[in-house]
Amino acid sequence: MQKVGDGTRSLNFFIDTILLTILAMLLFRWYNFYVVYWRYTPLHFGWFFFPTMFGYYSLFELFFSKTPGKWFTHSRVVSKNGHRPKWYMILFRSLLRLTIVDLFFGPFLDGPLHDFASATTVVQDPAK
Q1: For the chain, percent helix, then strand, then coil, each to nearest 5?
Q2: Residue 36 lies in a domain
Q3: Which residue of 46, 74, 97, 120 pairs with 125 in a disulfide if CB–CB is 3.0 to 4.6 A?
Q4: Is there a domain that residue 81 lies in?
């Protein structure tokens, strides 16, 4: 079980952020159709981005233990003992991603807060 480096984690973050931003923008535009034509209450983009982010990471990591960014870099999420993480670990991990201070714990905890607090880590996927 080889832990991935900061470059791999950055690439995962970059790819996943692009994809979930596109998804959130599509949902935002779809909702704005109803704002314009049906007079729904307008909402800020954040009301779409953050729930999309939570759902994106939760669903992909619950079902596959990896997101599209992790597929690209051949990595996966595992618990500290190397097994598949439990569902509550994944949900807590996804919830912690929403905090603004998540990435600032890297120098102190040897990784982001969502890894430390949920007792998970990102490792290289074994070659198939």
Answers
A1: 65, 10, 30
A2: yes
A3: 74
A4: yes
